[in-house]
Design a protein that fits this description.
Blueprint lengths: L21 E9 L8 E10 L4 E6 L2 E2 L3 E9 L5 E5 L5 E4 L6 E4 L8 E9 L4 E11 L2 E12 L4
Parallel strand pairs: 2-8, 4-11
Antiparallel strand pairs: 1-2, 3-5, 5-9, 6-7, 6-10, 10-11
Length: about 150
């Protein structure tokens, strides 16, 4: 007597629309009828709003002194900021998130964040500040202008 073993592979696609951001846990169980206990797989999913607005505000400053740069962001959660100061220098502030990200369907309750930093410009001039804000589902760019004057001597 010979045995015939049939291996059945299948792929299941689950479609779910998220109306609000949050952390969700999905659990899938499969039964094959041959074993008592089901096989279980769990996945954590972080649903995010896309970044919808980035604004950059600066105040006039003196060369050699720290200049205040205020950044405000609407949307998203775990955000990474890349700031180009316009003088050949840049800074990166990154979020470390290890769970899978998905986009929320609507942005009706997206959060707002404020981020402040400073930079020292060595010479007088007008410097374009470009801030790229990224999360796992989007990127948005905001621009400002740093006006730097020489000190009065």
């Amino acid at each position: 007597m010979s045995r015939f073993i049939c291996l059945l592979l299948f792929r299941l696609q689950l479609i779910r629309e998220f109306l609000s951001a949050g952390l969700y846990t999905f659990t899938v169980q499969a039964h094959n009828g041959l074993t008592q206990a089901p096989h279980t797989a769990t996945k954590r999913v972080h649903v995010q709003f896309p970044v919808s607005r980035v604004s950059v505000l600066t105040e006039p400053t003196i060369s050699g002194k720290p200049s205040a740069i205020a950044i405000s962001v609407t949307g998203g959660l775990c955000l990474s900021y890349r700031i180009d100061f316009g003088d050949g220098n840049w800074a990166l502030f990154a979020c470390n998130e290890s769970i899978h990200e998905l986009r929320a369907s609507t942005a009706d309750t997206a959060a707002s964040y404020a981020f402040n930093t400073s930079h020292v410009f060595s010479t007088a001039g007008n410097y374009p500040i470009i801030v790229s804000v990224t999360n796992e589902v989007s990127t948005k760019v905001g621009k400002g202008l740093a006006q730097v004057e020489d000190p009065i001597t």
